[in-house]
Amino acid sequence: MSTASLRSWLALRAVRGLDDATVCRLVQTFGSPEAVQAASTDSLVASGCLSASLAQAIQRGPDHDTQQALDRELTTLERLRLSVVTCLDPDYPPRLKTIHDPPPLLYVSGALAQADRHAVAIVGSRRATAAGRLLTEELSRDLASAGFTVVSGLARGIDAAAHRGALAAQGRTVAVLGCGIDQTYPPEHQSLRKEIESSGAVIAELPLGSYPHGYHFPRRNRIISGMCLGVVVTEAATQSGSLITARLAADQGREVFAVPGFVKADNSRGPNGLIKQGAKLVENVQDVIDELLPQLDAAFRERLKGRAPHPVESPPQLGKEEATVYLALSFEPTHIDDLITNSRLPAADVAVHLLALELKHLIRQLPGQTYLRL
């Protein structure tokens, strides 16, 4: 896109009172933002998209301060080598165009691809449990291995696990930010972001420099759900933003999936509540694929049918005491003291066997001397 054309998009978006849905309708009606800006007041009003006062604001164009801000943004975009995709571009996520208020433009680092039309979002709590993160990584890895793009929000907890699972499968993943694309939030995910950009994309709708204010995220969530076939919620409390994403998905006609959990756990109340309301219960990746199959194009369906079933891995041969320690573990974190009690083995022996099991990638050590079966 030329600098002049991008400036027209930014100037039109900067008109106070002009919402996203109206901007998109105007450029689709007139063909380009330049044509919108050149149209007469009567023509703009006759389009049925806006009032006379807004039409006059478009014709006046941005004031001096806004023009300077646009110049700075264009300079920064060029310096950072960031791209911008508009709702008229072929690279714009096709499903996102169909929602009520698609963002007129998206800032992109990395690259969007045609493969992203087969996208599934995985979202959940920032304060995820170890078991929730592990299950999310597994589900995301399996979806990416099947050819789906995994979309999430780069947040702590479930979002990060979703991105990491897709990356582990060498698949595509897209992160949708609730801030300007020139920022990374949370900042400790800078290295994760670079991995995502190398095999997928990071996108944002907010202008450069936008701070990650809390009120940005609920609106950001419409993009996560809007560009996907469906949304999976793995862990979420009753007030979680992930439930906003699930509600938006339902409003947009997307499939809603939920991973059930223990009824007394706070992080299970969100997905369990969604299941009560009709969300598809998910135990493994096949539950998601079966539900989405009718929406997939013929070539992708054929590829899924030809996919070899995920092999059930049996653990290697274990010694008697090693097997005892392994069987004393579960998919919920278990403290080493409980393992010693349940296995009835000396503490020193349990520690040795735990190290051996970890080296065999059968278990994972967590903070606080707790362990989890993989």
Name a few traits of the molecule.
Arc Repressor Mutant, subunit A, 3 domains, DNA polymerase, domain 1, 13% strand, elongated, Rossmann fold, 17 helices, 47% helix, 9-stranded mixed sheet, alpha/beta
Instruction: Return the average pLDDT rounded to an integer.
Output: 92
Q: What is the 3D shape?
A: elongated
Low-confidence stretches: none
> Regarding quaternary structure, how should these chains be classified?
single chain
CATH topology of the largest domain: Rossmann fold
CATH architecture of the largest domain: 3-Layer(aba) Sandwich
Helical content class: 40-55%
Largest sheet: 9 strands, mixed
How far apart the termini lie comes to 47 Å
Number of separate structural domains: 3
Radius of gyration: 24 Å
CATH C-level of the largest domain = Alpha Beta
What string, H for helix and E for strand, traces the elements in order? HHHHHHEEEHEHEHEHEHEHEHHHEHHEE
Q: Helix- and strand-based class?
A: alpha/beta
Number of helices: 17
What does this structure look like?
The chain has 374 residues and is of the alpha/beta class. It has three domains: 3-76, DNA polymerase, domain 1; 114-305, Rossmann fold (3-Layer(aba) Sandwich); 320-373, Orthogonal Bundle (Arc Repressor Mutant, subunit A), CATH 1.10.10. The protein has 17 helices and twelve strands. It has a nine-stranded mixed beta sheet with strand order 1-2-6-5-4-3-7-8-9, with helices on both faces. The chain has a three-stranded antiparallel beta sheet with strand order 10-12-11. α1 packs across α6 (64-80), α8 packs across α9 (190-199) and α15 (320-327) crosses α17. The longest helix is centred in the first third of the chain and has 17 residues, at 64-80. The two termini are 47 Å apart.
